[in-house]
Amino acid sequence: MTAVTAVTSTSSLDALRRIGLCWHPSGQAGLRGPLLALAESCDRAFRSLAAIWGADEERHPASLPADRLQRVDYLRSFPHQANFPAGLDPAGLEEFLAGEVVGDQGAVALTRLSPVSQVLTPAACYHLYSSLQGESFDRPHYVTTRNTCFRRESHYEPLRRLWSFSMREIVCIGTKPETVAFLRQARVAVDDFLHRMDLPVEWLTATDPFFQPQSNPKYLLQRVQPTKHEATYGGDLAIASMNAHHDHFGAAFGLSRDGEPAHSACLAFGITGWSLPCGHATPPNSPPSGKHCCARSRRWHAAGSASWRRTCAATARWTRSTGGR
Q: Which domains does the chain have, with CATH numbers?
């Protein structure tokens, strides 16, 4: 098993604990108090942004069938990040109980496992395409969901790089022009929202973290034709991303729009990680204080609603000026 390390300064970790962080060196975070209130306010604001498109809310389980996920070649593209729910083979339980069960280093002394056929959710939007398999649309379809996502990393850092974290996504399924229009509107909405929250970010072109990227044609294509852009705070913390999928998911899951494989695009927010920039009255790489968390929490929903109204108005003007194209 690849060793992982947790990277953070003692002073930063202590400050985060005082405002509600329960940090686990495995790369997982529990939230309470001001940090939990901030995260929930954050998600309410993102749901307000989803209302711009009248996106339907969905909820999905913690894992997906591996054969469904492999339709988009996930396990070959990101094997280093994949997580699997595993269970003991019932026929080998006596063997398991006869052993030490848990070793001195905290590792479970596994014996035989039942066949593994599920993958823990790597991104919230995968469930949406899978659940809509075979659907045909006569208009753009907008949907939003929140899920706990799991990704193995080489190291973990509180609220910045996590093994498991909450993700909110807003997805558009339609024609290529419809998904392009969605991403354009999403950029306007997010920029307005960030301005209202006084969060300075830089939008950067990014690529997905492919395994052995230099030999992966999908990575090389993303370098030549960028499809991923991240709102980056403090130089290296991506707090939102916009992604154009072309017809990648439409073709894989039999989604069609006007008889052709549907295109898709998504706007994604890592909810857990927003706790750091939302207290940015302190320096960008410093943790927020409880006082700033409480103040930010009160502003989230108002800012989300204001951005919703402003973007709806801008969208209506754009639709009138282009004839809806």
A: 5-83+122-322 (3.30.930.10), 87-119 (no CATH)
